[in-house]
Design goal:
This protein has 550 residues and is mainly α. The chain has 19 helices and no strands. Helix 14 packs antiparallel against helix 15 and helix 17 packs across helix 18. The chain is elongated, with a radius of gyration of 62 Å.
């Protein structure tokens, strides 16, 4: 703007000067006209030159001024852009501030509100405390009376609940005790297990065992261990049952009768598992703890333990030790009238008879069988009846040696007539065993009269029928399968059937069945048949042993 003003001032000065020059010649015109005209012309030229020069200068100044104005406009545009950016940023900041200020106000409000609420609560509590104290002062007696009534009602409900709970526990334990009693009847006959306990009793036993599981074992009573043992035994978990019975025997609060019975059951369980050495140790423990201690109702358990030990000795093949022990047991029981005709005496006598049969002392077997029958032939208790059937079966086997067929048939038919329809599992098992014995007698008779084909075939089919009946009730006894295989071989039946039966029997009790079968082949031998059967026996026994080793 300053450059522009200076240019304008310069232009105005020149204009005034030119005007002055133009006026000056005119005033001297009358003196010297020519000279003046010449001078005027000169002045005009000079003025024209100056005017053009001034115009060029002015144009340049104008151009310079325009350039400066353009530069200034660009600067203004840049400044305006910066201003716009700053204004935008200011707008954003103002927007943020507009948000933060309410938030700050809200925080302040909340803080103030909270403080006010706390102060109001404190004040309200003070007033409530005063009011409540006044109210309680007026109604204290009434409230105390109500509280006393509620306390009495609560105590009544607690007593009822406890009584109901205790009643339920007692009912469960009563059911468990019934199941235990039913199972205990069969524990001593460890080849058999009673499965006919009621569903209610079985459920009660399971519930009682579950209740025990919910307690730490360090808090277990004898009943807890015993319930778990019988529950495991009822479910076929014999090993756990044995462990629980042994744990039950270690409970300090258990009575001698409870301890002795728990140990006896553990010994029986070990026998079922064919751990005869461990079973003997347990029976010895019973004898060591209680024999000769004059403990009430202990003599029967001692007798059971002695018989259990004798049985295990026999099963281990220690027959001489077993015989000596049985002689001592029989002599001991004979001295007490209460036990001389008891199941314990029957058990001892049958163990003695079986031991003599194993040693093939058939004359002594028959003599002791007669002694037993004189004492127990008319017995009705199931515990003795099962021994009675066993003795008759042993007598049939001894009579076979001397071919006393009429006596054999008489004993067998009488036994079937007396007990063939029994529902007792142990008696049913003994009937299965005597049928197996009778089938063996028929096989021996068929071999003895081998050339009589009609008699042979008839007798062998009788044997096969009895074995088919027996295997239904005693599928766990190996000799039944061995007799089935041999009978089928003598009848010329399918080789696969024979091998299958031999395999099943040898898997159940290989060493004993193998040895007994070889001995039986020597009775009334049929060389053309027995050689083939012996080859099959050896082959199957080799395969079974190889399988068991792997």
């Amino acid at each position: 703007m300053m450059v522009y003003n200076k240019c304008a001032l310069r232009t105005l000065t020149l204009t005034i000067f030119f005007i002055f020059l133009g006026y000056f010649p005119s005033t001297s015109y009358s003196a010297n006209t020519n000279h003046r005209e010449q001078d005027l012309s000169t002045y005009k030229e000079i003025a024209q030159i100056r005017l053009e020069s001034t115009r060029d200068i002015i144009q340049k100044d104008i151009q310079a001024l325009s350039s400066r104005l353009d530069t200034q406009d660009k600067r203004l545009d840049t400044q305006n852009s910066h201003i716009d950016q700053n204004l935008s940023l200011l707008g954003i900041l103002l927007s943020v501030l507009a948000i933060l200020l309410p938030l700050a106000g809200l925080v302040g409000y909340v803080s103030v509100s909270r403080k006010a609420r706390v102060e109001a609560q404190l004040e309200a509590r003070k007033e409530a405390k005063v009011s409540s104290n006044e109210w309680f002062g007026v109604h204290a007696s009434e409230l105390q009376s109500r509280l006393d009534g509620l306390q009495e009602n609560l105590q009544t409900l607690e007593i009822r609940a406890e009584a109901g709970f205790n009643l339920h526990i007692q009912r469960v334990q009563d059911g468990a005790d019934l199941a235990i009693k039913e199972i205990q009847l069969s524990v001593s006959g460890h080849d058999t297990f009673k499965t006919n306990i009621s569903e209610t009793s079985a459920n009660a036993l399971a519930e009682a065992a579950t209740a025990a599981k919910n307690k730490p074992e360090s808090k277990y009573t004898f009943t807890d261990w015993n319930n778990r043992a019988f529950d495991a035994y009822s479910k076929g978990d014999i090993e756990r049952a044995a462990r629980f019975w042994r744990d039950a025997a270690e409970v300090n609060s258990a009575t001698p009768q409870q301890v002795s019975l728990a140990l006896y059951n553990a010994g029986v369980a070990m026998s079922e598992l064919k751990r005869y050495e461990q079973a003997i140790e347990i029976h010895d423990d019973i004898i060591k703890r209680f024999d000769g201690k004059q403990i009430k109702n202990m003599e029967s358990t001692i007798a059971e333990a002695l018989n259990g030990k004798a049985s295990c000795l026999g099963l281990l093949g220690r027959h001489e030790e077993a015989d000596l022990l049985l002689d001592a047991i029989i002599a001991r029981l004979e001295k007490d009238e209460k036990f001389s005709h008891s199941e314990y005496m029957a058990h001892a006598l049958i163990n003695k008879i079986i031991g003599l049969s194993i040693k093939k002392l058939y004359a002594q077997v028959l003599k002791l069988c007669e002694h037993f029958l004189e004492r127990f032939d008319k017995a009705e208790s199931q515990e003795i009846v099962k021994h009675l059937i066993t003795v008759r079966s042993q007598k049939i086997g001894a009579l076979k040696v001397s071919n006393r067929e009429d006596e054999i048939n008489n004993i067998y038919n009488r036994t079937i007539a007396q007990f063939g329809e029994s529902n007792d599992p142990e008696i049913i098992e003994e009937i299965g065993k005597i049928k197996t014995t009778m089938a063996y007698v028929f096989i021996c008779q068929a071999k003895e009269k081998w050339t009589d084909s009609k008699f042979r075939i008839k007798t062998l089919y009788q044997a096969a029928a009895l074995l088919n009946e027996a295997i239904i009730v005693i599928p766990h006894i190996a000799v039944v399968y061995g007799n089935q295989a041999y009978c089928a071989h003598l009848l010329g039946e399918d080789k696969k059937f024979i091998i299958d039966k031999l395999t099943q029997g040898l898997i159940l009790d290989g060493p004993q069945l193998y040895a007994e079968t070889l001995d039986d082949l020597l009775i009334h031998p049929i060389p053309e048949k027995d050689h083939i059967f012996r080859v099959m026996l050896e082959e199957v026994w080799g395969n079974v042993k190889a399988r068991s080793n792997t």
